[in-house]
Write a structure and sequence with these properties.
251 residues, alpha/beta, Rossmann fold, 2 domains, five-stranded parallel beta sheet, 9 helices, 41% helix, 19% strand, elongated, disordered C terminus
């Protein structure tokens, strides 16, 4: 289904922010409508305005984002909700009522990836973040993973990968070891493991595994030896292994 069939309602009391967001989403092929208040947005949806996803700010005059999200979740439970806010610590109740939350000022690629992921999440059981700065390699990995039934979220740089990883849940990461910008996959993997240690990471490289790398990532595959079936099977195995691990008493 193309983006043109997806309609997004953007809610923010800052007209300049709305304009920038509309231009970005329009460029990605989405149909966009805007609202400058929670009250107006709620009225639009209640009156039958067809939207697939609502992007909503938290700090707004009158009805704040958490109140809007709670009402929308109650009245329209199938509507996808994404919070976009500059506030560092959002109320837990607000977070629980949205599908994901993003920080204002994110790179456009990370922002659009998160929106796409939320819209597509009902159609794929597992989400894989693919990190690769070579366009042809990215296209190949995407085709390989999608052939296995995975939803693929793409990142072409280390910074974008970390933004996406912080902003939305993923079930596994497939990452190239050599990344542009002076960073390698090991450093990115270390930061990811600090955030979510149980998310499996598969490292791809032209090299064989380096000393100590196995302690950071969950699998190391040589690019020259990878076929679609091997990559899909390895990601499937790791996701299944993590899902089968018993939860601790604290959880």
């Amino acid at each position: 289904m193309s983006n043109a069939t997806k309609r997004i309602l953007c809610v923010d009391d800052d007209p300049a922010t709305l304009k920038v967001r509309q231009i970005l989403l329009d460029s990605a092929g989405y149909s966009v409508i805007t609202s400058t208040s929670g009250e107006e947005a709620l009225k639009l949806v209640d009156q039958g305005e067809e939207v697939d996803l609502v992007l909503l700010d938290y700090m707004m005059p009158g009805m704040k984002g958490d109140e809007l999200a709670a009402i929308l979740r109650q009245r329209h439970p199938g509507l996808r909700l994404v919070a976009v806010s500059a506030v560092g610590q959002l109320p837990v109740a607000f977070i629980n009522n949205v599908d994901t939350h993003l920080h204002k000022g994110q790179e456009p690629e990370a922002f659009l990836s998160a929106v796409s992921s939320v819209l597509e999440s009902s159609r794929a059981e597992h989400v894989v973040l693919c990190v690769e700065d070579e366009p042809l390699q990215m296209q190949l990995r995407k085709m390989q993973l999608e052939s296995g039934g995975f939803q693929v979220v793409q990142a072409t740089s280390a910074n974008t990968a970390l933004e996406i990883f912080r902003a939305q849940p993923v079930d596994a990461v497939v990452m190239d070891y050599w990344l542009s910008g002076g960073r390698n996959g090991t450093g990115v993997a270390e930061e990811m493991k600090k955030l979510h240690p149980n998310t499996p990471i598969v490292m791809l490289s032209g090299l064989s595994a380096l000393p100590g790398e196995g302690a950071i990532v969950d699998a190391w595959l040589r690019k020259s030896h990878i076929v679609s079936e091997d990559l899909v099977n390895e990601v499937t195995r790791l996701i299944g292994f993590r899902s089968d691990k018993p939860k601790s008493a604290a959880s």
